[in-house]
Amino acid sequence: MKVRALEVDGAVEFTPQVYPDERGLFVAPFQGAAFSEATGLTMLLAQSNHSRSRRGVVRGIHFTRTPPGCAKYVYCARGAALDIVVDLRVGSPTFGRWDSVLMDQLDLRAMYFPVGVGHAFVALEDDTVMSYMITSGYVPDDELAISVLDPELALPIPDDIDPVLSERDKDAMSFSTAAEQGLLPEYARSQEIAHRWSLR
C-alpha cells in the first residue's frame, strides 16, 4: 500500500497493490494496518455507502456537524471521479485549503477524510460508483452542505464538465456564510473526537 499525505491536514491518499490476471483482478482498497500506521487511528466502521453517478454529477461539499463528527474512507469501484477534500475546521493549520485525488477502477486509489472536513466529488464517466466507509450513521439533521461552486474556494471542477447538482447542493450556503453562522467544525474538537474513537 502506497501512502501519500494530502494538502489538507490529516487527509491521506492510499494506493493499494492491484493483482490482475486472466480472470479479472483482486485488490484490497482498505487495509487496517496500513491505515493505522499512516494515521495513528483505528477506523471504526458504523455504515457503508454506495453511490452511482453519471458523468457531470457533482456531489458536495458535504460535512457533518462536529460533534457528533464523522470520518470517511472513500474509493471509486467503477468509472472515474475527481475526489475533493476541503478543510472546514476552524483553527486547522490548513483551514480553507483543499486537495484532490483522481480515483478510478484501474489504480483504485482511496482517500481518508478526517473528522470535520468537507467532501465533494465530480463523476468523470457514466456509471461512476463511489464506495464509502463512514464512522457514524446518517442523521439528516447533522448533515450540512457548502456550495461546491463557491468562488472563494475555487475547487477544481473540470472545464469540460457541466455540473449536475441536487437541489440541496444547488441551494447550499457559501463557505463564508457557514463560518459567519458558526456552523464550521472546530479543529481541536475534531481531533479530540477522532482520537477518542480510536481509543475505544
TrEMBL record:
Pfam entry (one): dTDP_sugar_isom
An example Gene Ontology biological process:
dTDP-rhamnose biosynthetic process
This protein's source sits in the domain of life called Bacteria
Chain segments annotated as transmembrane: none
Supply the Gene3D superfamilies for this chain: Jelly Rolls (2.60.120.10)
Question: Mind telling me which CDD domains this protein's record contains?
Answer: cupin_RmlC
What is the name of the protein in this document?
Answer: dTDP-4-keto-6-deoxy-D-glucose epimerase
Q: Could you tell me which species this protein originates from?
A: Phytoactinopolyspora mesophila
